[in-house]
Design goal:
This protein is mostly beta strands and about 120 residues long. Helix content is about 0%, strand content about 55%. The protein has no helices and eleven strands.
């Protein structure tokens, strides 16, 4: 089993920054690719970005490229999502996910709310 707990969400003005954290525990969490997703009200969940288990490779959705940065500290079993230049359209519940022994994300956190005011 793998448990994922997100934190760091909140209310921020447009143009501001937030850093989300995802603390992982359980088997092989530090050797798994990790991803961030978000879901806005009335919309489907969408991919934000991901990071390889080593941290050497990252990939971002076009909508956040250049503004968001994903990093990880395997010693702390934690993945981060640094969000800069936030826009109202970034408002959503943000989820982290882990691909443990799988090509697909098979473990999910409970989510943390990010609200960007205009």
């Amino acid at each position: 089993q793998v448990q994922l707990v997100e934190s760091g969400g909140g209310l921020v003005q447009a143009g501001g920054s937030l850093r989300l954290s995802c603390a992982a525990s359980g088997r092989t969490s530090s050797s798994s690719d990790m991803g961030w997703f978000r879901q806005a009200p009335g919309k489907e969940r969408e991919f934000v970005g991901d990071i390889s288990w080593s941290g050497s490779n990252t990939y971002y959705a076009d909508s956040v490229k250049g503004r968001f940065t994903i990093s990880r500290d395997n010693a702390k079993n934690t993945v981060y999502l640094q969000m800069n230049s936030l826009k109202p359209e970034d408002t959503a519940v943000y989820y982290c996910a882990a691909a443990v022994g799988s090509d697909a994300y098979n473990y999910w956190g409970q989510g943390t709310q990010v609200t960007v005011s205009s």
